[in-house]
Design brief:
mainly alpha, 6 strands, 2 domains, flat, two-stranded antiparallel ribbon, 15 helices, phosphatidylglycerol-prolipoprotein diacylglyceryl transferase activity, 60% helix
Length: 384
């Protein structure tokens, strides 16, 4: 396993480069890149078809930087400098435990003040370049795809919060023991929490800019499936605990690699299992029994589902249907993977189930209802 990028580089090239990047975080970032690409492609396609339309906005140009802009840039610069300079001066600690460095109150005051001044000066100079003796108001055209930068920030912030909240609800006993650590930890993220909260944030931005919710949901279906596939690569490579139940069964095919059938996740970031003899460092545990590597199964299945959605997207003419199909495929995939995946179970009326099984079932039902709604309102949306 490769808990950090340094482990990955060491495995590939045999070099030891201490870097403060964990593998899971890198693939989460790549998942956003993949989603950004797919969303942008769909927004441009739907605008070209006349389904989505650019909006007009009045902006004032030629004004000097306002006090609010200077203060906000200075504040942002202070936070970066306060943490960045401290991290560089304590690089070994940063590499070994980036989370503690970033989330603690420790920092470098001089570094913070220096970057605060630099960012404020930068904001002033950028505005000064286009300053006019008499500022004027102009009308600008904003295309739907140009909203993606704003959407991705909102999706990242609210998606992370949602993923943390749902994960802590799923592991309530651990959360009660250490609520602060549970909320601030970078590990332990639930996909459905991120999907629900991040998706709601994107819908909010879209509505504010004249994009109807069903249109935005349709845009997001393929991209979210692609992002999920990419993100699960990070889960597998880092060994973050999203693996399956023990698998002691013999391989059904001799050509099948062991790691694709049953895997012990050595050096996993969850630090679960037994200590690896001779291993020194933070990630030295390996599962006592091999388990189903469910993250890699989801990588493959989700990517295939993305290709299917990407292929059929141009044939679907009814608003809401694409997203309904996405919800149904997502729900079926996750429901069945839960059958061989380790997870906390709840029992209601004698029926055991996991949080993901419940939500995936609800998503499938919601997707089915959305498809039915789209078909029943075909005439209403004839000009889709």
């Amino acid at each position: 396993m490769f808990p950090t990028v340094s482990h990955f580089l060491s495995y590939l090239f045999g070099i030891d480069v201490p870097l403060p990047f964990n593998t899971f975080g890198v693939f989460v970032a790549l998942a956003f890149v993949g989603g950004y690409w797919a969303f942008t492609k769909e927004l441009k396609r739907k605008e070209a078809l006349g389904i989505l339309h650019p909006t007009k906005r009045n902006v004032v140009i030629g004004e000097p930087a306002s006090t609010l802009e200077l203060v906000s840039n200075a504040f942002f610069g202070f936070l970066i400098g306060y943490k960045l300079i401290y991290a560089l001066l304590n690089y070994k600690l940063f590499v070994s435990d980036a989370q503690t460095v970033l989330l603690s109150t420790k920092g470098n005051l001089l570094g913070g003040l220096a970057l605060a001044a630099l960012f404020a000066y930068w904001a002033h100079k950028e505005k000064d370049k286009v300053k006019l003796s008499k500022p004027k108001t102009v009308e600008v055209t904003v295309h739907p795809y140009e909203l993606m930068s704003n959407m991705i920030v909102w999706a990242a912030v609210w998606g992370f919060l949602g993923a943390k909240i749902f994960d802590n609800l799923e592991h309530w006993d651990s959360f009660i023991k250490d609520p602060i650590g549970g909320l601030l930890s970078f590990s332990g993220l639930t996909f459905y929490g991120g999907l629900i909260c991040g998706g709601a944030a994107v819908i909010y931005i879209a509505r504010k800019n004249g994009i109807k919710p069903l249109h935005m949901l349709d845009v997001g279906g393929p991209g979210m499936m692609l992002a999920y596939s990419i993100g699960r690569i990070g889960c597998h490579l880092s060994g973050d605990g999203d693996w399956g139940i023990p698998n002691l069964n013999p391989k059904p095919f001799t050509w099948l690699p062991d790691w694709l059938w049953a895997y012990t996740y050595p050096n996993n970031v969850a630090n679960e299992g037994n200590h690896i003899a001779g291993c020194i460092g933070k990630y030295c545990n390996e599962l006592a029994q091999p388990v189903y590597p469910t993250p890699i199964y989801e990588v493959i299945i989700a990517f295939i589902l993305f290709l299917i959605l990407w292929k059929i997207r141009t044939r679907i003419k009814l608003p809401g249907m694409m997203f309904g199909i996405y919800l149904m495929l997502n729900g079926v995939e996750r429901f069945f993977i839960e059958l061989i995946r380790v997870n906390s179970k709840y029992t209601v009326a004698g029926i055991p189930f996991t949080q993901a099984e419940l939500i995936s079932s609800l998503l499938f039902i919601a997707g089915l209802l959305l498809v039915i709604y789209s078909i029943k309102n075909k005439e209403k949306h004839a000009n889709y």
